[in-house]
Amino acid sequence: MDGQITGRYASGAFTPVRAKPLPPELLRLRGISPRTIQEHYKLYEGYVNKTNEIRNRLRTVDRASANSTYSPLRELKVEESYATNGVKLHELYFGNLGGPGGRPAGALYEAIVFSYGSYEFWENDFKASGLASRGWVILSYDQDDGFLHNYSADAHNAGIFVRTQPILVLDVYEHAYYIDYGTDRRSYIEAFFQNINWAAASARFHALIR
Fold first, then answer.
1. Where does Mn(2+) bind (predicted)?
2. Cβ neighbours for 136, distance < 8 A, ≥ 6 positions apart
3. Model confidence pLDDT, tens digit, residues 9-31
4. CATH number at residue 176
């Protein structure tokens, strides 16, 4: 290598993030209006655009002035985590909507019962976490202890647990429900459960345990 630094970061190149198309079935949800989904999708597109803008700025940012109190590099790095997680969490959220609701089947159901004692207790905890959180509730598989956990994240880049994999994601920011429910978050969470795509959530889980 002769001391040369190579690779995508050294060259300043990056692959732009592209917004995934909005699945048409998300415009036919029960209790969550097409307008809410369309406005929500616009916010997701905004995170895609900002992720690309930040990564482009990171190509030429002044690294010599890096400082943990304030520096352009610090600000870009912090906001990269916010924007990028905003993209990923919304893709997971949209991806586990559009189903018939009900309960999961097979291995995911068994893992929920194994982790929480009963499906009913898990569901109650997930819904309560949705009322307690300021941003997200994420049913995640912990790669270290082998259990499922309902985690709460107050922001895209706050409350995300290391070495865990999302299985089911609920957005509880006001933009996810205010058009339909005003401040009635509880009713929105009930509507979310009526539209869960458990097949998608189960596929995420099976990809981890196979």
1. 40, 90, 171, 175
2. 89, 152, 153, 156, 159, 169, 170, 171, 172, 173
3. 555 667 999 999 999 999 999 99
4. 3.55.40.20
